[in-house]
Design a protein that fits this description.
heterodimer; A: alpha/beta; B: 209 residues; mainly alpha; 10 helices
Chain lengths: 179, 209
């Protein structure tokens, strides 16, 4: 059974990921879900998917979620802020981290997952745009696995043979076309 | 839509993609084609490619998600219904395959696949993204920060749609580029670019009023 953290669970990618996970209940367990400010959205997801941790990036939203969780009697530990995001990205019980926070805000939590040698499913394109080379260096240094979630990158990944990391030419590829 | 009409695009129009359901930021990025620009930058890092090896193709049906061309002339494409559950299921289970709930692709219903060259006059964001790769260092960090500021100002109703690339281009001109050799340098460039982009937005909005 693979443990999964979803960074940015209430967004479009987060919701689609939960939909796929719920089709395979014996293979995956949701360990942590995070959101920025959507307290009610994350609360509903906690009721359905029963994670161990729920994190709100916004501190005040975290206090609200803590109160709502107590009212509803849901057994979940609520954490707050960037520290909370980085904590659940690196938990020992987690194998897969879905990095689906939008924008630069996703960089540090995604990096925490990489540094904890997780399998990182990357939808947060800004992380790589901001820090390309040193981000990829960290992936290599920590032996993390980086798998692209964006439909276009995922499509290229599916069309490439193993070994492409050392250059497209290495696998005989001339170019990639992005639709 | 003419270039003039583009300046009056509303957040609601910009977020209404015909095929994909997406969050608001990425929807605006798709409308300006900055989304493709960011993907080109990302692709270089993900796949060890040069910018010249990444070509952008406009494909209105969103059925082919990308293609790879090989030296022997083979071109491999990945197709599917435009539903994020396919790439999610693929990445979750890789190298296995699992069921995703995505509706099967009906080629007869699609019938036709169209391709167009992107128009770099209408979509300056794409040019700016390619230029930031050539410049290197923190240039794409600055590009990204300026884009986030501009998109946010557009979504909150302060900035015109057509001013998004203007904010990005001027920010790139004003923020000095340094070597992107530590996360500290990158976060500093990000912060600096946001301040400058904010000032540029204020100036542009001031002109308009």
């Amino acid at each position: 059974m693979k443990g999964v953290t979803i960074l940015g669970a209430t967004g479009s990618i987060g919701c689609s990921t939960l939909d796929v996970l719920s089709r395979h209940p014996g293979d995956y367990r949701v360990v942590a879900l995070t959101a920025n400010r959507d307290v009610e959205g994350l609360l509903a997801q906690c009721e359905t998917h029963l994670p161990d941790y729920a994190v709100m990036a916004d501190e005040r939203a975290a206090e609200q979620l803590q109160r709502r969780v107590r009212e509803q009697g849901i057994a979940v530990e609520v954490l707050a802020g960037n520290d909370g995001l980085e904590t659940v990205a690196a938990l020992a019980a987690v194998d897969v981290v879905v990095a689906a926070i939008v924008g630069a805000a996703g960089l540090l939590p995604t990096l925490a997952a990489v540094r904890a040698s997780k399998s990182v499913l990357l939808a947060n394109k800004e992380a790589l745009v901001m820090s390309g080379r040193i981000f990829m260096d960290e992936v290599q240094r920590h032996n993390a696995q980086l798998l692209p979630l964006d439909s276009e990158h995922n499509a290229v990944f599916q069309c490439l043979a193993d070994g492409f990391q050392s250059g497209l030419a290495r696998v005989g590829a001339e170019c990639a076309k992005y639709c | 839509m003419s270039l003039d009409e583009l300046s009056g695009v509303t957040p609601e129009q910009a977020c209404a993609h015909p095929n994909w359901v997406m969050g608001r930021k990425i929807s605006v990025d798709s409308a300006t084609m900055m989304n493709k620009g960011l993907e080109v930058i990302e692709a270089c890092w993900l796949f060890g490619a040069t910018a010249e090896q990444i070509e952008v193709v406009v494909h209105p049906q969103s059925v082919i998600h990308s293609l790879v061309e090989y030296v022997d002339g083979s071109v491999l494409a990945q197709l599917g219904s435009p539903d994020m559950r396919t790439p999610i299921a693929h990445a979750l289970a890789w190298p296995q395959r699992i069921e995703s709930g995505v509706k099967p692709l009906d080629l007869f219903e699609i019938a036709q696949l169209d391709f167009e060259r992107p128009d770099s006059v209408r979509f300056p964001c794409l040019r700016l993204a390619y230029e930031s790769i050539q410049v290197g260092g923190t240039a794409s960090t600055v590009l990204n920060a300026a884009n986030e500021v501009a998109v946010d100002q557009f979504l909150t109703g302060h900035l015109a749609f057509s001013a998004i690339p203007v904010v990005i281009e001027q920010t790139l001109e004003q923020v000095p580029v340094s070597a992107a050799d530590s996360f500290e340098v990158i976060l500093k460039a990000d912060t600096e670019a946001r301040v400058i982009a904010g000032e540029i937005v204020n100036r542009l909005v001031g002109y308009k009023n």
